């Protein structure tokens, strides 16, 4: 169900339409607001548009870093899995030749 959620980001009110959970949308808006405010502290003068663009770039950078870490983690898991499979395959002949106690 589409609904409109009012949020405030860096002193500006925005109406967000969609079917996402209201608390989730408010968290997202708060996240963006925090980024913009943190950037503004380090700048002498900043327009709203400039802060928004810089915040978007910083958030995109965080997203890319997270994706890179996720991919590295998946690659590490795959390497460990292959190593384990190779170890099992190496031990398989000796395991198959062992007699099972009756």
Structure description:
- The chain is α+β, with helices and mostly antiparallel strands and 102 residues long.
- It has one domain (3-92).
- The chain has helices spanning 22-41, 48-97, and strands spanning 3-9, 12-18.
- A two-stranded antiparallel ribbon has the order 1-2.
- Strand 1 (3-9) and strand 2 form a beta hairpin.
- The protein is elongated and about 80 Å long.
- The termini are far apart.
- 5% of the residues are buried.
- The model has no long low-confidence stretch (mean pLDDT 90).
Strand line-up across the major sheet: 1-2
What is the ordering of alpha helices and beta strands? EEHH
Low-confidence stretches: none
Report the principal-axis shape: elongated
Number of strands: 2
Enumerate how many helices there are, as a single number.
2
Q: What is the share of helical residues?
A: 55-70%
- Which structural class should the secondary elements be placed in? alpha+beta
Number of domains: 1
Average pLDDT over all residues: 90
Percent strand: 5-15%
Radius of gyration: 26 Å
User: First CA to last CA: what distance?
Assistant: 64 Å
The profile of the biggest β sheet is: 2 strands, antiparallel
Q: How would you briefly describe this protein structure?
A:
The chain is an alpha+beta fold.
Secondary-structure map with pairings?
Layout: E1 3-9, E2 12-18, H1 22-41, H2 48-97
Antiparallel strand pairs: 1-2
Which characteristics define this entry?
single chain; 102 residues; alpha+beta; two-stranded antiparallel ribbon; 2 helices; 69% helix; 14% strand; elongated
């Amino acid at each position: 169900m589409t609904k409109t959620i009012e949020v405030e980001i860096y002193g500006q009110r925005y109406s967000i339409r969609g079917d996402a959970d209201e608390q989730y949308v408010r968290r997202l808006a708060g996240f963006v607001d925090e980024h913009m405010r943190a950037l503004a502290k380090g700048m002498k003068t900043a327009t709203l548009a400039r802060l928004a663009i810089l915040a978007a770039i910083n958030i995109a950078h965080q997203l890319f870093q997270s994706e890179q870490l996720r991919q590295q983690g998946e690659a590490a898991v795959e390497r460990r899995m292959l190593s384990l499979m190779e170890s099992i395959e190496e031990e398989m002949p000796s395991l198959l030749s062992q007699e099972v106690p009756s």
